[in-house]
Amino acid sequence: VLLYGRRRVGKTVLLRHWAEASGLSHTYWAAEKEPSALQRRKLFARVLGVEPARSATFDTWADCWQAIAATLGDRRHILILDEFTYAADSDSAMLSSLQHAWDQRFKGSQLIIVLCGSHVQAMETLQAQQSPLFGRLTGQWHLRPLPFASLREFLPGWSAEERVATYAVVGGVPAYLEWLDPQRSLSDNIREVILAPGSMFIAEPIFLLYDEVRDPRTHLAVLQAIGSGHHSLSEIANAALVGRTHLSAYLARLQELRLVERRLPVTIPPARRRRARRGRYHLSDPYFRFYFRFIAPHRDELAYRPERVLPLIRKGRRSFVGQTAFEELSRQWVTRQGETGQLSFEPEDVGSHWSRRVQVDVVAVNWRERAILLGECKWGVGAVTRDVIRELIERKSPQALQDIPDAGAGWTVYYAFFTRAGFTSAARSLAQTHGALLVDLGRLDRDLQD
């Protein structure tokens, strides 16, 4: 079985909980960056349940697997090999020796082997046809961060507004949520936990990057450029001072690590997306967005004047939450409603739209039915007014339709509005005239909990 996912997403906790709950005997071993002979010795010591100093040493992985097979015999047993890529990197023969051991010894036994790792791309290559383990996996899972609904369990008693803001800051990564203090407000957590001297939050992005890439400084510069609001290739190149010819390689590596994603307007037909040049690069991890927006530019200040950083965070947090988590959750709401048949059509693609003419926060498209939903998100403190409704329907909609096939001719258009603070009566009246969906924060929160 293969289980992989980014660091802090809960792989180890999940596996150990599952193994303990199974009632079966099990062995947990996490590889470290050390010589393969020492890795083999520590693994066998774990299987025996003794200290490494009392374990045998092995010249090859084949010898180690043979000893493990002899020790376990035909017992029903779970063997968890965590940070598996460290062992594979230390000895190029490790994978092929595991393949032979599986084919010759383990396949017909009662042993369950779990391969776990945080290097997502390396773990995915284990499933490729060129891998010695190809065709031998019983199951494979990419463990992703928890959904927004899970924040209620980590932060009981917090309002929907604070949970959305928290989702913008740390996303659904279980470790980050556990680091927060549920007895404090988000503002207090930012001040007392996230920005505290020696905080793991401050060290986390650099730690993750140094563990993954050989040239962390340039990768950090690229991440900083994107986090500061530069999203096109030319903007990123100018901000990071990286030539465009080299920038593509850095961006490709960051995309492999799932730290950066290239987004396209959802209004581009699928057949044209591979050649589309309107891509924008965004940080895909919520905490990385928060870190490179608010912390990294002022990290020197945090050592002795953290109070200087807090006003900057307070000033920019509302727009940050609105542009990241609230828009993303609104798109998730549209996807969920479409899947459960609550919309007038089932979207094939959900995203956003931008062009030289106009930008629309939430867009859902069904290409076969030629149906499109256009949505506006407002995270402001005031209720959405009639002018906001009119702006989307009368100005943005005709401009956005110019960018879809046949300039929107023959398409059916629907509208949706998402807000933190509700709607005025005039806005509700105008929206009702056009059959628009009105989704306040309470409804969004309830619907995403189901």
Describe the fold and architecture.
- The chain is of the alpha/beta class and about 450 residues long.
- The chain contains 20 helices and twelve strands.
- It has helices spanning about 10-20, 35-50, 60-70, 85-90, 95-105, 120-125, 150-155, 160-170, 175-180, 185-195, 200-210, 215-225, 235-240, 245-255, 285-295, 300, 310-340, 385-400, 425-435, 440-450, and strands at about 1-5, 25-30, 75-80, 110-115, 140, 260-265, 280-285, 350-355, 360-365, 370-380, 410-420, 435-440.
- The chain has a five-stranded parallel β-sheet with strand order 2-3-4-1-5, sandwiched between helices. Strands 8-9-10-11-12 form a five-stranded mixed β-sheet, with helices on both faces. It has a two-stranded antiparallel ribbon with strand order 6-7.
- The longest helix is centred in the last third of the chain and has 30 residues, at about 310-340.
- The chain is globular, with a radius of gyration of 25 Å.
- The relative contact order is 0.08.
- The mean pLDDT is about 95.
